Amino acid sequence: MLKTHDFYYDLPEELIAQTPLERRDGSRLMVLNKDTGEIEHRHFYDLPEYLQPGDTLVLNDSRVLPARLLGHRVPTMGAVEVLLLRDKGDGVWECLTKPGRKTHTGTELSFGDGELTATVVGEVDDGNKLVQFHYKGIFLEVLERLGQMPLPPYIHEQLQDPERYQTVYSRANGSAAAPTAGLHFTKELLEKLQAQGVNLAYVTLHVGLGTFRPVKAEEITDHHMHSEFCMMSAETAKLLNETHQSGHRIVCVGTTSCRTVESLVESDGTFREKSAWTEIFIYPGYWFKALDALITNFHLPESTLVMLVSALAGRENILHAYNVAVQEKYRFFSFGDAMFIH
């Protein structure tokens, strides 16, 4: 039985990337052969050398909302921070609030000199609050003006350009965190891949903050995954079916794309247009039904994402690769370097 601690590795804090590199595709790329454990050290712009004509890259086109709102409680003027997690419809959002104990049901909130106001209207099981927002115009436009990017808790630097926490192909608003493996792509690199015959397929999975939630259970099977909404178009389903039928590879960009295709694949290995809430938890012993290769960043010790890549490449191979990455001073986490597991 695998324990959470079986996925621990020692990471010096100075290797946690605090800011993105100037050049998106200038990051390093560790190439890991999942069968042999063999490692190569390359750069992200070398990726075309590892992809064949007919392969399909699966990209998560979700866009991060500027979902962090700083304001105050009315009438006390006490500071409040609200993080939008899920749109419940009619201006009501499930939110994370700080301080939680001072934002009980009935609390009035104000943001941006009253341009946006809100009322806490309820609470859900895990302590998150239901917040009803009041505003004029279009909510997303109000958010663009007043909201901030909800950067992960391990990033302490201010982000100069909010677009650097978005992929160049993001288009569907709804995530509380970026699908970070995609941050390495430039429009030029995507065009180069298409010119060499690689297909691009888009799925949408809105990333929740559960991505950063630590695994507290000692036995990994006791961990409950957060639920996230994902969808696949008919066009993408057709492309993925053709890719496998012609003997080529489905290469997922990021664990979110991986979880989407593995959640939406039919039992016979085919795809169709579909959307669903997924709580899929991939750990060693999992049999991949859709994905052949994965582009991903380096993940937190003992996280569900380290467990996912271990399911693909083997726990020993992954822990060895991560230890090599530490020795070679790779940059870790959201703004860090990348890995290609094939």
What can you tell me about this protein's structure?
The protein is of the alpha/beta class and 342 residues long. Helix content is 18%, strand content 28%. The chain is built from six helices and 17 strands. The chain has helices at residues 139-146, 187-195, 234-245, 255-264, 304-313, 315-327, and strands at residues 28-32, 39-43, 56-60, 62-64, 68-74, 79-89, 92-98, 108-111, 116-123, 129-134, 172-175, 199-205, 228-232, 250-253, 274-278, 293-297, 338-341. It has a nine-stranded mixed sheet. It has a six-stranded antiparallel β-barrel with strand order 5-6-7-10-9-8. Strands 4-11 form a two-stranded parallel ribbon.
User: Helical amount among residues, as a percent range?
Assistant: 10-25%
The number of helical runs is 6
Mean pLDDT: 95
Beta-strand content: 25-35%
Q: Termini distance?
A: 26 Å
Largest sheet: 9 strands, mixed
Structural class: alpha/beta
Rounded to an integer in angstroms, the radius of gyration calculated over CA atoms is 21 Å
**Elements, N to C (H/E):** EEEEEEEEEEHEHEEHEHEEHHE
Number of strands: 17
Strand order of the largest sheet: 2-1-17-16-14-3-12-13-15
| Molecular shape | globular
Uncertain segments: none
Indicate the topology.
Elements lengths: L27 E5 L6 E5 L12 E5 L1 E3 L3 E7 L4 E11 L2 E7 L9 E4 L4 E8 L5 E6 L4 H8 L25 E4 L11 H9 L3 E7 L22 E5 L1 H12 L4 E4 L1 H10 L9 E5 L14 E5 L6 H10 L1 H13 L10 E4 L1
Parallel strand pairs: 1-17, 3-12, 3-14, 4-11, 14-16
Antiparallel strand pairs: 1-2, 5-6, 5-8, 6-7, 7-10, 8-9, 9-10, 12-13, 13-15, 16-17
Helix pairs in contact: 5-6
